[in-house]
Design goal:
5-stranded antiparallel β-sheet; alpha+beta
């Protein structure tokens, strides 16, 4: 009996620890993965290897009701065969997330970024094509490279099973009269929208533009246009 109670206590503690970890970063909108000594540590795949890229992974984290996220930075090696987007850059960035996560997010490498909307299946990441040249994005002052994810909108379904009450040896009359617990589960829909301000601002600008009746383009020093 004591071991059973300890097992229940350990299970409850584990669920509580996971819940606290999620709530801790519920209001977090952006996570930066700062790579130190980037010019030394980050190396594309060598020419002798068959793989066209080499991957680096960030620690896992929770953000905006999304659980178990992880960033992946891919560095591509030079190829003798023409590759689509090879003139754009030599790195790409991807995001891993748990199955069922519906995310609108922005991925960044240094100052270069891309916005995406995806529903994750938990088996593959989603991200950019070749985004930029990673050495151009390294901060020369401290030799760091910042890889970021910003959650614009997050929708996640969390399922909680309905646990039947524990049986007692001699139930009282009041306990016998209670209705039986139906088999099933409770589904929580967690929705966080971090772009409300941007959406409101765009709608306000749209409403203002509808009030505009006439637009004038006033060119100064128009007599000198022919000389240009």
């Amino acid at each position: 009996e004591t071991n059973r109670r300890l097992d229940i206590l350990d299970e409850t503690t584990g669920r509580l620890r996971e819940a606290v970890a999620e709530m801790e970063n519920l209001s977090t909108r952006r996570v930066d993965w700062v790579i130190k000594r980037a010019s030394e540590c980050l190396r594309p795949a060598s020419a002798s290897k068959s793989s066209l890229h080499k991957s680096y992974f960030s620690p896992k984290f929770n953000i905006s009701a999304a659980f178990g996220l992880q960033l992946e930075l891919q560095l591509f090696k030079d190829s003798d065969i023409p590759v689509d987007g090879a003139d754009t850059g030599d790195c790409a960035v991807f995001l891993w997330a748990c199955k069922g996560s519906k995310l609108s997010f922005r991925l960044s490498v240094g100052s270069k970024s891309i916005a995406l909307d995806r529903v994750f299946n938990g088996r593959v990441p989603y991200g950019s094509r070749r985004l930029c040249w990673f050495r151009d994005q390294i901060n020369p002052r401290d030799d760091t490279l910042t890889v970021s994810v910003e959650i614009l909108e997050s929708i996640r379904e969390v399922e909680h099973a309905i646990r039947p009450p524990e049986l007692v040896e001699e139930p009282s009359e009041a306990e016998v009269a209670k209705p039986k617990t139906l088999d099933g589960y409770v589904l929580f829909h967690r929705h966080i929208n971090n772009r409300v301000v941007e959406q409101v601002r765009s709608q306000v600008d749209l409403m203002r533009s509808r009030m505009v009746r006439k637009v004038e383009w006033r060119v100064q020093q128009a007599s000198k246009l022919r000389r240009c």
